Amino acid sequence: MKKRIPSNLTLTFEEISEARIYCLRQAQGSFSSDLHLLQRGKAVPNSSSLRTLSPMVCQNGLLRVGGRLSNSLLPEEVKHPIILPKHHRISLLILEHEHRIHLHPCVTALFVIVRQQYWIVGARNMIRKLTHACLKCFRQRHKTTDQYMADLPAVRVRQAYPFEITGCDYAGPLLLKVHKGRNPRKEKGYICLFVCLVTSAIHLELATDLSTETFLAALRRFISRRGKYTHIFSDNGRNFVGAKKVLDEMYKLILSQQHNTQVTQALASEDIEVSYLSPAHLLIGRPYTSVPEGDLGHIAVNRLDYWQNVQAMLQGFWKRWHQEYITTLQQRPKWNTERKNIATGDMAIIKDSNTPPASWTLARIIEVYP
């Protein structure tokens, strides 16, 4: 007569607990000699690897840490965790289980989590190997590819007037009050940031939007205060591209022969002679195309007139800039290792700031743009 198999195959809590205890006893077979001594009321020998743990046997026959925390307020399973051998299959399964249910923590975090219940000999090295072999952990800890830091460009390390070589970018958005008083209406605005690439000086202008016209107005205000630049660097923003087109058109107009002829005739008809004094003489102390002074460092200070004294001070500032500031740019604080360039066919992970690292997608490089 065949034995009837019960239809309900769900394991109960007691069955799972007994199975866990049985598996743990099998894993602790590596400490059988120490276990037998403890069951007979004897201490483990000095040569035992468990000597420093002061091991003891619990009522389930499992080997636990005796330790020094019996007077603490920690739970019993934390004060006396179960001892397990290293490189055992049961130990590895426990680490993999805790690693998975706690959402792939780092080595130290997983080590602390496991210690709340189990004392696995050599657990830290096992955890390192486990996280190193985990694909999800690899995707989370992988760093963005970088290249060897290049030398500083000439515009950064050669003497020039402040803001003669300028970098430009936008910051924001931020909220602006349209008027004063109660409940003022607020609108979104931006900061137009100009940075001198030689002296690291900063000039800020307010921009009410990101249009080309607003940027050109901010650029005119910047030039009226700091002088005309020779080079300006920016990213490929639409407002910058639009401004470049407008400035190119103005530049072509100024250089055209027809424009210059008409302006000259109009001024001559009004008896106006051109030899001008611009606001730049007062605002920045020089015209836009001033000729630099000769070296005044070898002349005694009491022999210099007022203007030469000012120019000598300026030359002294630049001398210190060359001797004290430029030399501090020698080191490469990061990206100091030459690496293989990304090539066609390489596998890559696409970083997305709006998703967690475990959800970043894989991609294949089909084309590169050096």
UniProtKB/TrEMBL annotation:
Name the InterPro entries for this protein. Answer: DUF5641, Integrase_H2C2, RNaseH-like_sf, RNaseH_sf
Q: Which residues form the DUF5641 domain?
A: 306-370
According to UniProt, the name of this protein is Integrase catalytic domain-containing protein
Organism (species): Drosophila rhopaloa (Fruit fly)
Q: Which SUPFAM superfamilies match?
A: Ribonuclease H-like
Q: Where is each Integrase zinc-binding domain found?
A: 85-142
